[in-house]
Amino acid sequence: MRVVEVxxxxxxEVLDMVRRPEPVAGERPGRVRVRLHAAGxxxxxxxxxxxxxxxxxxxxxxxxxxxxxxxxxxxxxxxxPEGELPVGTxxxxxxxxxxxxxxxxxxxxxxxVEPGWLAPVPDDVGFTQxxxxxxxxxxxxxxxxxxxxxxxSSLLVTGASxxxxxxxxxxxxxxxxxxxxxxxEGDESELxxxxxxxxxxxxxxxxxxxxxxxxxxxxxxxLFDGALIGETALPAVKNxxxxxALAEDRAPVSVRDIRVETVLGKPDAVLLTKLLxxxxxxxxxxxxxxxxxxEEASEAHRxxxxxxxxxxxxLMI
Length: 317
Ligand SMILES: NC(=O)c1ccc[n+]([C@@H]2O[C@H](COP(=O)([O-])OP(=O)(O)OC[C@H]3O[C@@H](n4cnc5c(N)ncnc54)[C@H](OP(=O)(O)O)[C@@H]3O)[C@@H](O)[C@H]2O)c1
Description:
Pfam families: ADH_N (PF08240), ADH_zinc_N_2 (PF13602)
InterPro entries: ADH-like_N (IPR013154), ER (IPR020843), GroES-like_sf (IPR011032), NAD(P)-bd_dom_sf (IPR036291)
Low-confidence stretches: none
Mean pLDDT: 96
GO molecular function: NADPH binding; oxidoreductase activity, acting on NAD(P)H
Shape: globular
Strand content: 25-35%
CATH topology of the largest domain: Quinone Oxidoreductase, Chain A, domain 1
Bound molecules: NADP nicotinamide-adenine-dinucleotide phosphate
Protein name: Zinc-binding alcohol dehydrogenase
Keywords: NADP, Oxidoreductase
């Protein structure tokens, strides 16, 4: 089968398509095989490829296959949250690549996954759309749960124009939080449709803090740091508030009794089943920015690194 390997740590050019043997049924006990149609390119992929997590990932080292999000069809039957999913079922999910550290990601034609990592894809949701949901939506949902704020509380979402940030805005609004979104220029009206009550453009930190002070003079009850801004965003949080970080190396040191929590998305088949149904019902909005063939993984990484993409970049397999 074709896979894209990180051949050595470095820039997008270190990605190379090679052939590996196809996994056979039962090769990894407890796992099922999925023939992939789509895989997501995430910012975490870029950071891993660049070697930013080389120490944490050791002894795993290149060559390895990147990729967390996937959508495809089951090659083996799998137990699902609502009964067995037969061969051929359309499914999506994510490989918890960073915690698994097996180096067997989704930039590949076939992956072997635990049944608890996937959920069935509703008929009206395409593979590319489905592959844009799992890691980002589950991370945002689990981050909001960890915040644990009651309805009416105030929340600042950085990176709200990003894939995780958009989901965080939607879940927070649905939970009755008053959301201020730090957005990419031009995204303000869309973020308001998604549920943000206030928007401020990303850019100058002092301007953002000034705008945040107008909305929440004593600081926000919570901050969801979808842009991995870290410490410089901390002044926007009130004394005793909560700061949700999405990467351990970007979690600020706590001051003023602020609870700082780092959330690493954990697969949850029940939650993902529900979220994919919400996508089908248009109750949850997801966006795909680009769809590119697996062969163009290097170019996909270059695009992702170049800055703002209005949604997930998807590799078609
Ligand atoms: N902990 C986990 O399990 C987990 C799971 C998924 C993702 N993540 C991490 O979460 C982050 C968000 O992921 P994503 O998929 O949503 O990425 P994304 O779509 O690229 O979104 C990141 C957003 O942050 C904005 N941003 C970046 N630097 C900024 C800065 N200095 N100031 C203001 N805004 C800034 C970007 O703005 P532009 O649009 O203008 O570029 C973009 O809107 C990534 O860093 C990823 O590694 C963690």
